[in-house]
Write a structure and sequence with these properties.
By secondary structure, the chain is an alpha+beta fold. The protein has three helices and five strands; from the N terminus they run H-E-E-E-H-E-E-H. The longest helix is centred in the C-terminal third of the chain and has 24 residues.
Length: 138
C-alpha cells in the first residue's frame, strides 16, 4: 500500500483548514436555515426546506450556501452573489477567486478574507430571504 506523499498530505491539511475557516462562518446561520449534511468531513450546506404545499416535483428546498473539499481546492457557493454586482464591491479580495459556475475556489488559507466573507454572508442572507418569500408566498 502506497503512502501519500508529503505534498499530498500538506495539500489535504491545507484544504481542511480552508474548509473549517469557511464553515465556521456558515454555522451561525443554522438558527435561520437547516444544515442537513451527512458528509460533514468534506461537504457542508445550508438550505431552506419549502413548506409541503409549496413544493414542486423538482424543487423541495432552496440552497443558500455550501462549502466543499474538491480534488485540488475548496469550493464555496453562496446563492444571490452571482445575481448582484453590489456583492463585488463588498468583498473585492474574495471575488478574485470567483470562478465560472458561480463558485469561489480557494487553494490557500490566506485567500479567504474572513471579514469580507462575514459581510458577504450577511448581505447574501438578506437577499436570500427576499427570494425565499417569493417561493413561499406564490
Amino acid at each position: 500500500m502506497r503512502m501519500p506523499s508529503k505534498e499530498k498530505r500538506a495539500l489535504e491539511r491545507q484544504k481542511k483548514l480552508i474548509f473549517n475557516k469557511i464553515k465556521k462562518h456558515l454555522v451561525p446561520y443554522e438558527t435561520v436555515l437547516e444544515a442537513p449534511t451527512t458528509y460533514s468531513e468534506w461537504y457542508y450546506k445550508l438550505i431552506f426546506t419549502l413548506p409541503e404545499e409549496k413544493r414542486k416535483p423538482y424543487i423541495d428546498h432552496l440552497l443558500f450556501a455550501y462549502v466543499r473539499i474538491d480534488k485540488k481546492d475548496v469550493s464555496m457557493y453562496i446563492m444571490s452573489v452571482y445575481r448582484s454586482h453590489k456583492f463585488l464591491e463588498e468583498a473585492p479580495s474574495l471575488f478574485e477567486y470567483f470562478k465560472r459556475n458561480n463558485v469561489f475556489r480557494f487553494d490557500n488559507t490566506h485567500q479567504v478574507n474572513e471579514k469580507e466573507l462575514k459581510k458577504l454572508l450577511k448581505h447574501a442572507l438578506q437577499e436570500f430571504m427576499e427570494r425565499k418569500k417569493y417561493y413561499v408566498e406564490n
